[in-house]
Design goal:
about 290 residues, alpha/beta, Tumour Suppressor Smad4, 2 domains, six-stranded parallel beta sheet, six-stranded antiparallel beta sheet, 18 strands, about 20% helix, globular
């Protein structure tokens, strides 16, 4: 079994769990490939396998063709890890050394069970849809996709902006707000949720449009089929606006047309036995613990 490792940093209290992770991989004779920029950080904290290989980018990761990629960190680390996977169909599993962790949902003290679950094939693959962005200037280049969300946002603290929105060419609304979020079902528990958007099951074929601090109180999030084509045009007093694809950002000019559609490829998330989306949101959002139940 070939396993790729990706990460950035972690708290010192995670060191024993990360060491155990590598020990368990060695115990099952797994071939380990680690992100090269992560190796110096790890090497100062844990003992690494002597025969470990490294990958530098999407192309070299794809050449190794690992069976899985383990992301060590929080949800943001998984989003970064997926910029290396892209369309390579490499299933990803998140070991949570961060905070809340909807995507990175394996607790660090369950590392041993996670590795044994992979080795014994006690898991399933959960496929997640992404969204992609098209602009005349080809913003974001090859990374013009998002697992969580696309946003357009005012760049400074000036007045609100207007985002004219069209669905399959038909005018939907002009959102007068601080910004607008176009979210996948996976991203429904991220920025969209904090702005009042609904939680959507990750296997749903939907996208969500959620305004950020809208001026008109009758404007609410809307759920659409993900086979539509959205066109957004942001206007306002400012000459520039900020747009993001997950954690990556670019600046656009006033009046730039942005087309958002479903991406041609999917993300593959590993779901271990005894893990599920509904169990995760119950745990993370503290559902069902009211003592009156």
């Amino acid at each position: 079994m070939r396993v790729a490792i990706f990460g950035k940093s972690f708290e010192d209290n995670s060191i024993p769990h990360i060491q155990l992770l590598f020990q368990e991989l060695t115990a099952i004779n797994a071939e380990v490939i680690c992100y090269d920029n992560f190796v110096p950080y790890l090497d100062k904290r844990i003992e690494l396998p002597e025969d470990m290989n490294t990958f530098e980018n999407h192309a070299t990761l794809k050449e190794f063709n690992p069976h899985f990629l383990l992301s060590l960190g929080g949800d943001g680390t998984i989003l970064s890890a997926f910029t290396f996977i892209r369309n390579a169909n490499i299933p990803i599993l998140g070991i949570n050394t961060g905070r809340l962790g909807f995507l990175s949902n394996v607790a660090k003290d369950h590392v041993k069970e996670a590795i044994q679950g992979l080795a014994n094939q006690k898991f399933k693959i959960d496929k997640r849809n992404l969204i992609s962005l098209k602009t005349e200037d080809h913003l974001f280049g090859d990374l013009n996709f998002a697992l969580n969300e696309f946003t357009v946002h005012k760049k400074d603290s000036s007045s609100m902006i207007t985002i004219n929105t069209y669905v399959n060419g038909e005018y939907l609304n002009s959102y007068w707000a601080d910004g607008l979020i176009v979210s996948t079902p996976t991203g429904s528990t991220a920025y969209s949720l904090s702005c009042g958007g609904p939680i959507i099951s990750p296997n749903s074929s939907n996208i969500i449009i959620t305004p950020i601090a809208p001026h008109n109180l009758n404007v609410r999030p809307i759920v659409l089929s993900d086979d539509v084509s959205l066109k957004l045009v942001a206007e306002g007093r400012s000459k520039e606006f900020l747009i993001t694809m997950d954690s990556r950002s670019e600046t656009i000019n006033n009046g730039t047309e942005m087309i958002i559609e479903k991406s041609p490829f999917q993300a593959e998330m590993v779901e271990l036995e005894d893990h599920s989306f509904f169990r995760t949101i119950r745990h993370k959002l503290l559902w069902g613990i009211d003592k009156r139940n």
